[in-house]
Amino acid sequence: MQKSLGETSTQKSLSLNTSTKAMRKRREILTIIGFMAPALIIYGVYVVYSIGMTFYYSLFEWSGIDNNFSFLGLDNYVRLLQDGVFWVSLGNNSLLLGASLLTQLPLGLIMALLLFSPVKGMRLFRSVYFMPFLMSTVAIGILFVFIYDGNFGLLNDLLGMVGLESLQQSWIGKESTAIWAVIATVCWQFAPFYMILFRAAIVGIPEELYEAANIDGAKPLQRFKNITLPLLMPIIITSAILSIIGSLKYFDLIYVMTMGGPNNSTELMATYMYKQTFTNFNMGYGSTVSFSMFIIAFIVTLFILIGERKRRGVE
Amino acid sequence: MIKKIRQMPLYLVAIILLLFTGLPFFIMINTSFKSQLEFMTSPWSLPDSFSFSNYALLLDTNFFSYFKNSLIVSVISVIIVIIFGAMASYPLARLKFKLNTPLFLLFMVGMMIPIHTTLIPIYLLTINLGLYDTIWALIGPYVAFALPISVVIFTQFMKEIPKELEESAKIDGCGHIRLFWRIIFPLLTPAVATVAIYNFIHIWNEFIFALVLTNSSENATLPLGLREYYGEFTVNVPAIMAALTLGSLPLLLIYFVAQEKIVKGLAAGSVKG
């Protein structure tokens, strides 16, 4: 009885097989489209289409406020390569990148390691260490403008207190110190961020490894070198990538603190692009600067991906 | 005793870092309670009498409007990102189709794109849509740039949900739509928390889109508002510090209430990305 029931149902499904399969396939495609369409449309319009349009605008001489387009082809890119300010800003982006890697990551690591040390009152330390990252960059920029101020800035005050009057100066008003003052501020803002990344990774290191090392009589520094550091390598690389990509996009702080000045000494690609587009009304050339940022970010990402793949291959 | 002496350097480093990170906050909050004269004569001392007059000054301005705008934009954007992001991740994580990997990569590349590359077209598009100088102009770009990391987080999370759950639901005659909303979505809570925290902080503090896509003071978000105070109060440093303190307060308060959650959410969000 049971067997015959089963047979009839398989026969039925066999005869229906081809049409249901096609229908099921079509329904699956509709499902995929239905689920992905909202995200794809928003992402497609605001990101993919916009990047294409930026390249398109970069081929024109256009103010952005009238309809006088004149087609230049790649002339804007030739102009860019000869534009001293662009090279200065690219140099500043590179300086920021190097300084970020060399200051934020080590500082973040030191903070994270301290959180696991037997220092009392660690909860308070941890809470305060992390606070800078929650402030908006605009607020940070304004706050530090007053700290660095030449007349009533509190940094000069502090230097006076410890007898370093000779160093007192207008930190962001001078070409030689402005970029370093900004870099210090960026470090203040982002070191806490790397601290929490490292902290999360250190939590994941098995306690037994340290216990075994203790039995072997390893000193703290040896434990750090032979256990902590190697196991943290993946997160250090992730952090380095985040820091590199972040450095190429930097804008807010410079805009608030220095506007790229004095005399372009703190100009970044993003601030230069903003100035060309919205202050000088060169939308065509501004697009050229911003599309170049995209190309540079793309090349850097490509290198990172290739490097990652090689590293994984070695392991 | 010996142990304590050996720990001295640790305490020293910990305290130096505490001063490094905390001193600017002390300066900001301390100054905000002072009069201008008091700030000029003794910038480091605690205020003679905690005066809220600088804060009272802010209440006569647009502060609440800035706050409201930031809140509306951030909450709506984050909700849209969660819904659309989770929906888009469902086929990417659970279904096999030809464009699966290319579409996932398309979203992933979005994380490295400098937003400035899209600024000019988005500015023109916003004008054409008639949204220029409204807070609604900001939601599109905020959602678009929050989607990549959110899709990556959701997709990775959904891949770990066991297939059996789905199969039993399918036998019960559950379609994809019901399956997603009834079974998968409720299981995403930890991923939703990560996505919400990570994106809320970034959107709340976002500056350049707000700067370019809005113009009038009544449509300004908090970061723009702070910059307006900076221009308006010029040398009245205590008033500016009061504005910065009040502007930073919401996130700091949330942080002190839900510290562990926020730190974990941020760490998870960044590493997955």
From TrEMBL, chain A:
Subcellular localization: Cell membrane
SUPFAM superfamilies named among the record's database cross-references: MetI-like
The keyword Ligase is assigned to this record: no
InterPro entries in the record: ABC_transporter_permease, MetI-like, MetI-like_sf
GO process terms (BP): transmembrane transport
Main location: membrane
Domain ABC transmembrane type-1: 90-306
Coiled-coil features, chain-numbered ranges: none
Annotated TM spans: 29-49, 95-116, 128-148, 178-197, 229-251, 283-306
Membrane topology field: Multi-pass membrane protein
UniProtKB keywords: Cell membrane, Membrane, Transmembrane, Transmembrane helix, Transport
GO cellular component, one term: plasma membrane
Gene3D superfamilies attached to this UniProt entry: MetI-like (1.10.3720.10)
Family under the similarity heading: Belongs to the binding-protein-dependent transport system permease family.
PANTHER family (UniProt xref): ABC TRANSPORTER PERMEASE PROTEIN, INNER MEMBRANE ABC TRANSPORTER PERMEASE PROTEIN YCJO
Name of the protein this chain belongs to: ABC transporter permease subunit
Automatic annotation (TrEMBL), chain B:
Transmembrane segments: 12-33, 71-92, 104-123, 135-158, 179-201, 237-258
The keyword Endoplasmic reticulum appears for this protein: no
Gene3D superfamilies cross-referenced by the UniProt entry: MetI-like
Domain of life: Bacteria
Pfam families named in the record: BPD_transp_1
Subcellular location(s) per record: Cell membrane
CDD domains reported in the protein's UniProt record: TM_PBP2
PROSITE patterns tied to this protein: ABC_TM1
Protein name: ABC transporter permease subunit
Species whose genome carries this gene: Aquibacillus halophilus
